[in-house]
Amino acid sequence: MPLIMAETGKCYTVKEIRGGKEAKHRLEKLGFVEGAAIEIISRQGGNTIVKVFECRVAIGAGMATKIIV
Amino acid sequence: MGDIIVIAMLAVATFFAARSVIKNKGKCSGCSAKNSCSACNNNKNSIEFINKI
Amino acid sequence: MSDIKIALAGNPNSGKTTLFNMLTGSKQYVGNWPGVTVEKKEGMLKGFDNVIIQDLPGIYSLSPYSLEEVITRNYLIDEQPDAILNIVDGTNIERNLYLTTQLIELGIPIVVAVNMMDIVRKTGDKINVENLSKALGCPVVETSALKGDGAMEAARRTVAVANSGENKNIPCHFEGSVEHAIAHIEESIQSIVPKHSVRWYAIKIFERDEKVLEKIKLSPEDNKHIEEHIVECEREMDDDAESIIIGQRYAYIAKLMEKTVKKSNKYADGTVSDKIDRVLTNRVLALPIFFAVMYVVYKISIGTVGDWSVGFMEGLFENIGEFVSGLMEGNVSPVLQGLIVDGAIGGVGSVLTFVPQMIILFLMLAFLEECGYMARVAFIMDRIFRRFGLSGKSFIPMLIGSGCSVPGIMASRTIENERDRRMTIMTTSFIPCGAKMPIVGLIASAVFGGSALIATSAYFLGVAAVIISGVILKKTKAFAGEPAEFVMELPSYHWPTVSGVLRSTWERGWSFIKRAGTIILLSSIAIWFLSSFGFGEEGFGLVEDMNESVLAKLGGSLKWIFTPLGFGNWEAVVATVMGLVAKEEVVNVFGVLSAVGEGAMDILEAGGAEAIEGLKPIGEQFFNGSGLSAYSFLIFNLFCAPCFAAIGAIRREMNNAKWTVGAIVYMTVLAWVSSFVFYNLGLVIRGGAFGINAIIAIVIVVIGAYLLFRPNPYKNEKISIKYGDQ
């Protein structure tokens, strides 16, 4: 499912990154690569704070739909 | 006599003020006071700044 | 022996600058290269006389995503430092090593400093530095920039590798077919690129990096040949070339981690930061918490502290004025006395009155910034700003702009989308900067009896102007398109250091004081002269009535512009125009003019016990005590063209004359229109006659509403991210 539907406070594994090249590469560079373990910290509308590689990253709703967990 | 002293003091103050104003033309308020300020220096690494604040 | 150049490179927030300051110590100087492009700091390494250290902007990778990355990358490739000292945040080593693998590929001698080791040890994690060094093929040093451990050791090692020449170890290998393609690319470009960086160039070409391809201009045959290999890889891996590289790099790092890092599970249930985030960025509570925080900040600084400080400072300058005139009485001519007491002390004093309030305001803002809350606010605001065509990243320039618009405008550089960036530059100075604070304070005290509500409203007016501009501008062709997606790394929460908060407060406060002593002093004197002399009946000379003065004539000639806004007296005109020099001038002009006009002693006597009363004559004199005129004046001065320094910053960041002029005109027009509407509708509401101005105001409101609510004609424009001109 897309990350935007994931539950707050739970841990997931990234399965796939969808979307245009630009957005995709950007997410991948932040560590959202296949197999990366992530945790949903908080959510505001669709905007999500995700923990990836010990780092808190805030991503917009659009980005959050591109990450499949 | 008093006039001359006051005028002299005023001239000195004006001179230094004018010099400082010319020297700092166009700088931000922090930089014009201190030569460098954290707001601008951090801007030079602006992503770093985002992460710092 | 020629100088050795060492570049400090690393992720943002990895402690580079702290390390830089430590390494360069007292010899450090901050060199600013002009222009938008190159912004890096340079200093001499302590204890060496031929080692230059260059602090580069913090970056995540060597791909040209943001301006910082381009700057750093261009520096590393074109200027060829002798060695790189790569700072790695030990608490977040996976992410940081991503950049490290790329830096190593550049082939420049490199030393990796694993920083923040003290924190790593505290959490119980173990990093095997020896294994890491073996795997990466370069020296690895443990440091702790905060405590100063290992910094010099790292620098010494870097100097040593710089002397030893190039770095031949390429640790990060990709899978077979990718390596195969890269080898082919290396072969074709061998003769055109610097020998040691051949692998880096080859990988970038594999990723189809536009900037690199532009630079090395492959022949069409080579290009075709290379493209075949890339496409073949892409087909095999079922992914695009750049993603393949990124994915494999992370895979390599994951393997590397297994060998070198042992994580303790001390914080398995989430760190403290995570817990705080769950509350402060909570879906429901986030916004109320933010508004409450901001209200408290302004309530305390402008309300509580302002209440007593304005009184205190007024009294102080009253006494100074009295003391100085006592000294001069009888010894000095009355004209000079007027110049000193009315001009210099009156003018500078009026500005300095607001120092205590500003210090408190800056102190609280600095605290919020340092502890990490403001980064969360950008995240929270994104949701709201997005609705109005701006992204949360626009909030950061505005936040910095509350100190001074110049760095605020500069901070817009972090916004990748050029249209968002232009819009942010145009709107940043709507948020009242430190220098506009005294105007707010003056109006609040002189006309509204020190109301904290008026002061807070100035900030919300600023935000409203930003939002309205966002909506209107987004519907024009130049700004059409969705704002870029929001992606931002959030730092951990931590207690701000006392020295950090104090320093930033002091910096802002001191700059305010210093400006009062320089530019404000000069213009106080100038305004005093211009308002005291004029062409009277006996030719040029001192004039009895200030309305005969040169300044009155000058200001009077522009009066017609402001009459419809309710402050068409020459004093307010002069104040507004002088605001272009520096926004404190607005208060300064009133300070001098009220002193000259009334005679300083009258004002001082009027001061009496209640010092707020002391400002009242200003309100009476210049706005007839009318709240409507005064607030209209406030609106105009908050929104209109910023000071020259900020205009200069807009010019630099826009890098385009047309856009600069457009921005200034837009601000001034918005200012005029808002004041006009406010004042004239205000008059009607208060029961005034319904005249032609009121009709115009209603027409403006209708047009404004149309611009705000019309359907967006460019709604379907695709997002395209452009980079600023290099």
Low-confidence spans of chain A: pLDDT under 50, at least 5 residues?
Answer: none
**CATH architecture level-2 label of chain A:** Roll
**Which sequence of strands runs across the widest sheet of chain A?**
1-3-4-5
What Rg of chain B do the Cα atoms give? 18 Å
Q: Order of helices and strands of chain A, N to C?
A: EEHEEEHE
Helix content of chain A: 10-25%
Indicate the CATH class of chain A. Answer: Mainly Beta
Q: Helical segment tally of chain A?
A: 2
Task: Estimate the helix proportion of chain B, in percent.
Answer: over 70%
Mean pLDDT of chain B: 69
**Quick one: how many beta strands of chain B?**
0
**Low-pLDDT regions of chain B:** 44-53
Task: Estimate the global geometry of chain B from the Cα principal axes.
Answer: rod-shaped
Q: What average pLDDT do the residues of chain A reach?
A: 81
Helix and strand succession of chain B?
HHHH
Distance between the termini of chain A: 6 Å
Number of helices of chain B: 4
Structural class of chain B: mainly alpha
* Alpha-beta classification of chain A: alpha+beta
Cα(first) to Cα(last) distance of chain B is 56 Å
The largest pleated sheet of chain A is described as: 4 strands, antiparallel
